[in-house]
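Q: Convert this sequence to structure tokens.
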Amino acid sequence: SSLKLSNPGRICYKLFTKERRINRSSSLGPVQSLTLSGDLSKIGFYMLKKWTLLSKEKIFDTKWVGMEKRAYKLPSGKIIDDYYHLTRANYVLIMAVDKNGQIILERQYRRGVDDFVYELPAGFIGKKEDPLDAAIRELREETGWEGEGKIVGEIYAQPGTSSLKAYVAIFKIKKFDKTKIKRDEDEEMEVELMSWETVKKMVGQNKIKDMGALSALAIYEASK
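A:
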């Protein structure tokens, strides 16, 4: 299936199915040769192509977010010279599971949506910091919990406007120490341990709306 999703795989698959249709509907016999040379669009095939980055100019840069004005050349030849690209540090999302299978959820106020939001423990990765080390640090500082974990996946958080990537970590938490909690001044939150069934029910009831949390929960469910 992964080969079928690649550009060469897509073409081979389409050529194969096209040949089968020709063989079944024609009395001319098997198709002797189908090559990948020439303009494939003339026979109904199209290969996806990347845009070409022509230039980039920094508009602003802050502690949390920056912006670049970029120019791209599209496969069609068209030039887009005002594509605005957000720059942010990558971050980690942490699925923290205790010995009873309960999941840590955080509930905190998010000014962007002016609402209280259920999320997973998360945080930005420092420069030259390993994603797993960042996950260990953020889990400890936000919740007081520690344990053993690993990175199990990656998410493109805003692929249309940014190269921002989130790493998903799964932790088996074993030890709690309230004195290890060191949150930022604006991080006022409720931390709860919830059963997996309760969490899934909350997803179905649209009570968990954070995109990163939903993606990480899906990865966790698929990896079980």
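Confidence is low (pLDDT under 50) at residues 26-36.
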